[in-house]
Amino acid sequence: MPVVTEEAIVLTRYPFRERSAVVVLLTRHRGVIRALARQAKGKAGGGSALEPLAQVTVTLYLSPRRELATVNEVELRHSCMALAGRPAAWAAALVAAELALEFCPPGTSQEALFRLLERTVAWLEQGVEPRVVVGYALLWTLKLAGVLPDPSTCARCRTPLAEEQLVFVPTEGFCCAGHGAAGVSLSLASISFLHQALRRPADRLTAVPGPELVGLLRSLAQQFLEKPLRSLPVFERLQGATPGPC
Ligand SMILES: [Zn+2]
Q1: What is the tally of structural domains in the chain?
Q2: Contact 153/160 with Cβ under 8 angstroms?
Q3: Ligand 1 center to residue 190 CA distance, Å?
Q4: What pTM was estimated for this model as a whole?
């Protein structure tokens, strides 16, 4: 049975039989791997290293005949338990984890998605506004998947789009005002977020994405995945509960 050691981020875990768990790991070089983690008798430490969003170095047995790998050794490099005390930031990190899980097809290596998730967690820990981080993670996941339409030219007539006016037409992409009659106009805040986020890291953005931009990114993700993102409504409910500028 091949044994591999990988840097990984725990995307999720669920109980499996007695004293075991299945962990879903995003590894740096091998994409998403599902693995069985047995909890050793009288030893609590092994299990706690595999909490959601923990960054670990993990040694796995890969079985060519079984879907599940087996966790042999885990070393915790970074725990995200400090984020769990901030509900909106934690929910934002779970959105990023779900995006990584859904957009990394099994058996493919997606190092860019790994780096995006790693940085997303770091920005949230540094105190970057969760709405900015969620918008950034959505935008870049769609871009890395090749699903984000080009916001610099009109999808219909190919003329360069002025930065102060951007209309999104669901079946076409970003359009000029002349071709965007059936579309959603983006707010100035959303337009500047879009342009900034494609050029800079999330901790250097001054704009916050508006709900119409988040809504269109979410529907692009949903069309691509053919199902809704489960973590996003949870995040949005937490946002709704927090008073803030709109
Ligand atoms: Zn046009």
Answers
A1: 2
A2: yes
A3: 20
A4: 0.91
